[in-house]
Backbone:
């Protein structure tokens, strides 16, 4: 694997460095999104909560993916009503902000 730069002569980032990938500095990355119809409830909500749990994120990483960044976790907790932490719009992850209402 090679380190990659977003532009010629720029700083190169490593795809094996978790912080480079999660921060978006490594330019060849994208989030994996799930879309549901409406507010999750019942078994769907339970499954999403499991995916976001420490155990679920362990499975994600064991399968070769990167776990979700902290700001995504906070946003998901907020949407699921699992946290008192609130993210103001400017702090939402950019791809979530772009997909709202899509």
Residues:
């Amino acid at each position: 694997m090679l380190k990659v730069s977003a532009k010629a002569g720029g700083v190169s980032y490593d795809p094996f460095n978790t912080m480079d990938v999660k921060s978006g500095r490594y330019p060849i990355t994208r989030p994996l999104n799930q879309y549901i119809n409406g507010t999750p409830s019942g078994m769907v909500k339970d499954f999403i909560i499991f995916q976001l749990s420490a155990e679920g994120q362990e499975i994600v990483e064991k399968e070769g993916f990167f776990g979700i960044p902290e700001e995504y976790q906070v946003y998901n907790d907020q949407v699921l009503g699992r946290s008192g932490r609130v993210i103001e719009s400017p702090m939402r992850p950019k791809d979530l902000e772009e997909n709202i209402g899509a």
Summary: The chain has a mean pLDDT of 79. The chain has two domains: 1-30, 35-99. The radius of gyration is 15 Å. The helical segments are 18-22, 42-52, 54-62, 70-79, 94-99.
